[in-house]
Design a protein that fits this description.
Helix 5 runs parallel beside helix 15 (about 585-600), helix 8 packs across helix 10 and helix 14 crosses helix 15. The longest helix has 28 residues, at about 350-380. The chain has an eight-stranded antiparallel β-sheet. Strands 1, 2, 3, 4, 5, 10 and 15 form a seven-stranded antiparallel β-sheet that branches. The chain has a six-stranded antiparallel β-sheet with strand order 18-29-30-31-36-33. Strand 7 and strand 8 (about 100-110) form a beta hairpin. The two termini are about 30 Å apart. By secondary structure, it is an alpha+beta fold. Among the domains are: about 20-230, Beta-galactosidase, Chain A, domain 5, CATH 2.70.98; about 610-710, Maltose phosphorylase, domain 3 (Sandwich).
Length: about 700
């Protein structure tokens, strides 16, 4: 942890073991899952990958191999007391265990030839210690040294499941140690007082016994460093966020890296995002779109484009852009997600050819959409809440119509309508007067039908409060994505009674760890990602950013020390009931996106200003703290700025050399005491107007320095 920095992140609400991390190189199809418990470390991987999956379909990539690693000192089992990422953020593993005065450190790193597992044991005492480390393949396998005790190699080959000369795992060195059992590679030795010994286990990518000599001569230490450097280079390309809380800083880096963990080659050779690392190791439309939005905000435009191009290609000849042959069939939200990604990619890159190509898809989708909604108009009377909405579809996310997973769901209509709004914007941007009026009419009609339906179909409580259910008059199931009515879909203004009532309903049942419940499949359970999704942004718009900042801290504390999250879980510490993938994609995407947006927000407020530190935790502005942001991309250009907090002043400096100085900045001074008065002591390079604890700065030059008095 950096000097003088403090954290509120302790992972106190992590779910039960095992805690999982996927270790691989960026965008790699060779992925290894490491499951950490106090008793053992397990490695799991598949010989398959997503190149064998139908495009965009959910098909689980089955695990083929599992290796369990245990360690003992003087026959006493070593117990793990820590597991984390190397350097705090790299998709790798640093696992520590101890017993009887012996300390074991295991470091697991992916390389281009396979995984390197470095094991170091130190005897901290003054007496000899007998060390035993066993890596056992949990399948019908045999170590060559078990068959021939005189063999110099310790290499485990399959008996079943693959060619019998396939190397599953191997000792990186020649050895005299006979394995403890036929399926294992074993390390057994005596450590003298204060002595340290290092060993190395290799999990190669599809190598065979003919490769053993080459493997033994390979410089695995060099490959280990190269593997780490690939991830360091990812972060070097990203903006610098030097934050008062080092754990939140590491969370940003770790979650950004995990977007590249959860990307790989598809069956047609294209690269795309994934929804998870094992159960959901498939590409749909949702998570790749969310990845693309986040990648664009960090300036990774090429992988963002790859994700968008992959999902945008899923369109039928009749114009349906709703993944009719893919994972998201019947959800109606897919076209909205795609359109939003296309819009934001264009706003960041000004790639007109990209927008022109995808506008034709938007146009075809809008025409198909209109035809579907005409059917629901004919089927229903105008006073029906289903009149003019998209037809009966699949809920997902725990949305239910009574006990039925299918219904006419509001969230998917919200997001579908968002896609129509983006099509109208694109027509205007591209000066497509020939279709602009048509698209505008289609969008306004759908929005009007939604608003009319909400007036008819909302839920009204005895106290007079009103809120939006998953579908008309429905209180069952989760309320996932109903906040999307405000953001990002712009159906309702943030101060609309339905918006206010819905947010109160969503946040009226908070877990003991500080997160809203009942947003997913598990009744009264937690879907951690959703707290930092639309809900967090609606709170910011409602001038309740403190709630959103608290959600960030709570979300991180509900993750594992590896900055990984399961999809859903129950609320208690050490929750044993968990569902979905053990390392799900949505939460790290939301964390990476929110940390950026709480620091630099260029779209949320719709006022053409760049908002700075609009939702950081208030302790970031504690006396003695500093924030340094370098080369952060925004619609208006790149910005670098720093904030230093002393007892009586806040000093703000900004470098706008790559920024449009015709755009104003809105600095949110989120002081721990929100009642303190803020005034301008001095400013150079522009002017500032203070409203409560916000400073609107109008730049005159590309260098600004402002000192604000507080108190």
């Amino acid at each position: 942890m950096k000097k003088n920095k403090q954290t509120k992140i302790d992972f106190g609400y992590a779910f039960s073991e095992p805690h999982r991390i996927c270790v691989c190189l960026p965008n790699s199809s060779n992925k290894t899952l490491y499951d950490c418990t106090k008793d053992s470390l397990s490695m799991l991987w598949s010989d398959s990958d997503t190149t064998h999956n139908p495009l965009g379909a959910y098909k689980r990539v089955r695990l083929d191999w599992k290796v369990k690693i245990i360690a003992k000192c003087n026959d006493v089992a070593m117990e793990a007391f820590s597991w984390e990422r190397i350097e705090g953020y790299i998709p790798s593993l640093l696992y520590k265990a101890k017993a009887e005065g012996a300390n074991l450190t295991v470091q697991c790193v992916a390389t281009r030839l396979g995984d390197v597992i470095k094991m170091s044991v130190t005897n901290t005492t003054g007496s000899d210690k007998n060390i035993f480390i066993d890596a056992c393949v949990l399948d019908n396998t045999i170590n060559t040294k078990w068959a021939d005790f005189d063999c110099e190699y310790s290499v485990v080959n399959p008996i079943f499941n693959d060619a019998s000369d396939r190397i599953v795992i191997m000792d990186a060195s020649l050895t005299d140690t006979v394995p403890s059992r036929r399926e294992s590679v074993t390390y057994a030795y005596t450590l003298k007082a204060k002595e340290t010994r290092e060993s190395m286990l290799i999990r190669p990518n599809k190598k065979y016994n003919d490769d053993i000599e080459v493997m033994l001569k390979t410089n695995w230490n060099a490959l280990y460093e190269q593997g780490l450097n690939e991830w360091r280079n990812i972060i070097k390309k990203a903006p610098v966020f030097d934050l008062p809380d080092p754990m939140i800083e590491n969370a940003y880096k770790a979650c950004l890296c995990d977007i590249f963990v959860m990307r790989e080659e598809m069956a047609d050779g294209r690269m795309a995002g994934l929804a998870g690392t094992e159960m959901y190791r498939s590409s749909n439309t949702g998570e790749p779109c969310f990845q693309a939005l986040t990648l664009g905000k960090y300036g990774f435009f090429e992988p963002a484009k790859e994700n968008i191009e992959f999902v945008a290609s899923f369109q039928l000849n009749n114009g349906s852009w709703e993944d009719d042959k893919q994972w998201g069939k019947y959800m109606w939200a897919s076209s909205g997600w795609k359109s939003r990604c296309i819009q934001h990619y264009y706003l960041r890159t000004k790639d007109r050819a990209f927008l022109e190509e995808n506008f034709e898809r938007m146009l075809a989708s809008a025409r198909w959409s209109k035809a579907q909604r005409e059917k629901t108009k004919k089927k229903n009377s105008p006073d029906s809440p289903e009149w003019g909405l998209m037809p009966r579809g699949m809920g997902d996310g725990g949305l239910k119509n009574g006990d039925d997973l299918f219904g006419v769901f509001y969230p998917h209509n919200f997001m579908h309508c968002m896609g129509l709004e983006a099509a109208v914007w694109a027509a205007k941007e591209l000066q497509r007067e020939d279709v602009y009026d048509e698209l505008l009419a289609t969008y306004l009609d759908h929005k009007e039908c939604i608003l009319k339906s909400l007036q008819i179909g909302h839920i009204k409580e005895p106290d007079g409060s009103v809120w939006i259910g998953s579908c008309a008059h429905n209180t069952s199931g989760s309320r996932w994505a109903v906040a999307d009515a405000v953001y990002p879909t712009n159906i309702l203004p943030v101060d609309h009674p339905l918006a206010v009532g819905t947010m109160n309903k969503l946040q009226g049942n908070i877990s003991e760890g500080g997160l809203p419940k009942n947003l997913g499949w598990i009744h009264d359970g937690l879907w951690v990602a959703i707290a930092l999704d639309a809900m967090a942004y609606v709170n910011i718009l409602a001038d309740k950013a403190d709630i959103s900042a608290d959600y960030l801290v709570a979300a991180l504390n509900h993750g594992t020390p590896l900055f990984t999250w399961c999809e859903e879980r129950t609320e208690e510490k050490g929750a044993k009931r968990i569902t979905g993938d053990l390392q799900h994609a949505w939460t790290p995407i939301c964390v990476a996106q929110f940390i950026r947006d709480m620091l630099v927000s260029d779209y949320l407020f719709k006022d053409d200003m760049l908002h700075l530190t609009c939702a950081v935790p208030r302790y970031f502005y504690k006396e003695g703290n500093a924030m340094n942001i370098k080369e952060a991309p925004a619609f208006q250009g790149k910005i670098s700025f720093s904030i230093e907090v002393s007892k009586n002043t806040v000093t703000f400096t900004a470098d706008l050399c790559s920024f449009d100085i015709n755009r104003e900045l809105c600095l949110h001074l989120r002081l721990p005491n929100r009642n303190l008065e803020v005034t301008v002591q001095s400013i150079s390079g522009g002017s500032a107007v203070i409203t409560e604890q916000k400073a609107v700065i109008k730049p005159d030059t590309n260098k600004i320095k402002a000192v604000f008095n507080i108190g």
